[in-house]
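Um, can you check?
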Amino acid sequence: MAGKEDSPHNEEKNADQTYTEVRLPGKGSIPQDNDPSFKKLVNAAVLIVLLALIFIALFSFFFNMQEAIIALFHPKYQALMQALFSLLVLFTGIYMIKLLLPNKR
């Protein structure tokens, strides 16, 4: 029996069980950044950066599309196509602004 105690194949009962500590939210000792004003500030900053990137992309797309109209259409129709494209961008922008503004009804 003495040889069995030193055997590497012997394992203690329940040796493979691990215990984890469960903490309830707000009860732990670790401070959390759950301040609503901080979250609003971060969300506003992310929104401003995304809007700036969209604005830059829109300008780039607009001017590149103007160049594409010049390359694709006969000079006789270039001004007309540029005006139609500008109107399309204008109406799309107005429509999207109406969707984003809160409904006051």
About this structure: The radius of gyration is 32 Å. The first helix runs from residue 2 to 5. The mean pLDDT is 78.
